[in-house]
Inverse folding.
């Protein structure tokens, strides 16, 4: 029996070490918890209770997701959208409705086309579908600004940029 | 083969050393949690009142005499109070010469305060410690003199351990904590209703006189100081293993006097060892040595039914008898119990069963040589609907009753061994619990429960504190109360 156990003790950590996508850390609250005979009834395992020292990351994350800064939309997405669109003049920004609308903007060296963007930040969660960006383009034809199509990928490219920036902001605040 | 081994070792080494994932470092947080509970209990117990003075352990002797190695009726022992006749009937301490009658009604309160330390390093490893402060330091009153006593509710440590965990290689816990078989990874032990049914808080109300309270629950295996490895989960499987040198907990050697004795945590042979097959609850002492546990668990879901299976094994050696003539004798069998459990959960229902077989007495102790192995079957079911949870569980055990051998020392100090003809009978231990709870607020429950536990051993007087031969004893407990986890 002992030799079998010893073999298992050696083999299993080796097996565990070659894990991949099917491997994960078992959380502390997935183990039983006994006090003499009776199982304890701790509500959320080690993340229960009151933080008396240190920064409560769980609460911080909850607050950020809920827009603890007075925003009714996700703070990371909101800030990331503002950052991403900051190269254009801002026409209006409503943090409660989650809309950002820029004014017309002509990139230097392309005087006969101009752009305008509308962004909607939706919901309090930091999710990839939590932001929508719509870009409008006009071109100057015979002294008149005429609507013209934008390339199909522009909107989603802008959204990707916003999401990347939001991720950056989130990881920055997590490592504070 | 050698090549494969070397290759594997290199891969493992690389996996252990590689920065597994980029995660932000987190300074440790300290949390306070715990629980409080208050119950009313109604207890109907045979052998609750004592009517006949008997030689049962009474702990009425002073602390020094209680811990010293001495001779009782010519037998050297560490438990000088066992069988010792009370020298005088005292008005301050209950002695063997006294009798008492106990009421059915009582209140019982208990609480623990838990401190959780949690942190994370820059490479994704989490670390921390858990310190659980309990307030049930002693079961019975300790009154040395009229003005010298220790409160029943004195603070003490239940469990404390440090851990370090990584998604790559799992978790290591080091400290006073349950093992993989003794609570961490069991399947099929359904105790999530009431106070836990037959494994619940009923022990708070049942007196030990006829010993109708001790169960062989997973947690009863003990939280002696051990080192525990817990693997990550892969393909639904995770496993754990632990090792402990002995039954001791906490700091220091455990030796109560200047002379090394069996009370020292690390003693492996001592006079009177045969008295400690069953752990002495107060001093947390037992003959168990070099304890190892291993468990393999699978969890997953099939067609919406959550499943969990566990197979485990606990084994250990035992301390040997050491006569005053310095002769070592082996009096115990090794501990060796295998355990299989399974449970299934769907639509709020959970059903489970566990089977255990192996060399153990009724409280996870080493059997004396020649004694029969233990068999235990546990089944349970519960149903949760909104704030309500109901459930029931049942346990049936057959185990050695009175040992088949009695050990002692003769006048010359040599170990004597006398067969105990009356010890051949089988002991049966049967219990069930049925109960429920209602969640009135997050963490706060009202609980109600009824449980019964019976021990029976043909022909053996289980309760010498009452006249006649009682070979069957039952304790029935009804509990109504509240519990808050925070």
């Amino acid at each position: 029996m002992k030799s079998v156990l010893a073999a298992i003790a050696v083999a299993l950590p080796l097996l565990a070490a070659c894990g991949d996508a099917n491997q994960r850390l078992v959380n502390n609250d997935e183990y039983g918890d006994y006090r003499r005979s009776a199982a304890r009834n701790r509500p959320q395992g080690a993340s229960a209770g009151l933080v008396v020292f240190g920064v409560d990351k769980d609460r911080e994350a909850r607050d950020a997701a809920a827009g603890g800064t007075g925003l009714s939309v996700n703070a990371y997405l909101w800030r990331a959208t503002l950052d991403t669109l900051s190269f254009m003049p801002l026409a209006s920004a409503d943090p409660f409705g989650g809309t950002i609308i820029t004014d017309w903007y002509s990139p230097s060296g392309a005087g006969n086309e101009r752009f305008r963007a509308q962004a909607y930040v939706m919901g309090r969660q930091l999710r990839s579908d939590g932001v929508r960006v719509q870009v409008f383009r006009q071109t100057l034809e015979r002294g008149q600004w005429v609507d013209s199509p934008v390339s199909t990928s522009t909107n989603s490219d802008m959204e990707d940029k916003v999401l990347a920036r939001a991720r950056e902001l989130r990881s920055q605040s997590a490592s504070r | 083969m050698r090549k494969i081994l070397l290759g594997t070792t290199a891969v493992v080494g690389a996996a252990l050393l590689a920065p597994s994932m980029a995660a932000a470092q987190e300074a440790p947080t300290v949390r306070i949690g715990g629980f409080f509970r208050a119950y009313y209990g109604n207890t109907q117990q045979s052998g609750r009142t004592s009517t006949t003075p008997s030689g049962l352990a009474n702990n009425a002797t002073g602390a020094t005499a209680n811990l010293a190695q001495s001779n009782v009726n010519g037998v050297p022992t560490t438990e000088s109070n066992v069988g010792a006749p009370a020298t005088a009937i005292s008005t301050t301490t209950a002695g063997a010469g006294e009798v008492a009658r106990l009421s059915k009604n009582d209140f019982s309160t208990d609480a623990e305060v838990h401190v959780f330390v949690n942190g994370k390093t820059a490479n994704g490893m989490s670390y921390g410690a858990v310190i659980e402060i309990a307030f049930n330091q002693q079961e019975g009153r300790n009154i040395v003199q009229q003005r010298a006593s220790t409160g029943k509710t004195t603070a003490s440590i239940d469990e404390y351990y440090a851990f370090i965990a990584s998604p790559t290689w799992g978790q290591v816990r080091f400290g006073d904590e349950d093992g993989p078989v003794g609570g961490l990874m069991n399947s099929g032990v359904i105790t999530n209703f009431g106070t836990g049914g037959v494994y619940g808080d009923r022990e708070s109300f049942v007196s030990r006189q006829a010993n109708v309270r001790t169960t062989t629950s997973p947690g009863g295996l003990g939280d002696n100081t051990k080192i525990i490895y817990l693997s990550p989960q892969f393909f639904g499987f995770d496993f754990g293993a632990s090792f402990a040198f002995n039954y001791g907990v906490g700091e220091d050697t455990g030796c109560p006097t200047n002379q090394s004795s069996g009370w020292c945590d690390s003693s492996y042979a001592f006079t009177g060892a045969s008295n400690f097959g069953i752990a002495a609850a107060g001093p947390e002492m037992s003959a168990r040595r070099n304890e190892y546990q291993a468990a393999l668990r699978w969890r997953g879901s099939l067609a919406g039914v959550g499943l969990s299976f566990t197979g485990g094994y606990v084994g250990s050696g035992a301390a040997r008898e050491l006569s005053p003539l310095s002769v070592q004798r082996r009096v115990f069998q090794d501990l060796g119990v295998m355990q299989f459990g399974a449970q299934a959960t769907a639509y709020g229902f959970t059903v489970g069963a566990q089977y255990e077989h192996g060399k153990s007495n009724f409280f996870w102790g080493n059997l004396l040589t020649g004694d029969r192995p233990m068999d235990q079957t546990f089944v349970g079911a519960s149903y949760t609907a909104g704030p309500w949870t109901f459930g029931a569980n049942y346990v049936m055990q057959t185990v050695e009753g009175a040992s088949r051998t009695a050990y002692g020392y003769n006048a010359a100090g040599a170990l004597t061994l006398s067969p105990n003809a009356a010890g051949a009978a089988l002991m049966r231990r049967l219990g069930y619990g049925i109960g429920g709870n209602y969640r009135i607020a997050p963490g706060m429950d009202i609980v109600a429960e009824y449980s019964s536990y019976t021990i029976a051993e043909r022909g053996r007087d289980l309760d010498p504190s009452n006249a006649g031969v009682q070979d069957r004893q039952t304790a029935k407990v009804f509990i109504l109360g509240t519990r808050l986890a925070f």
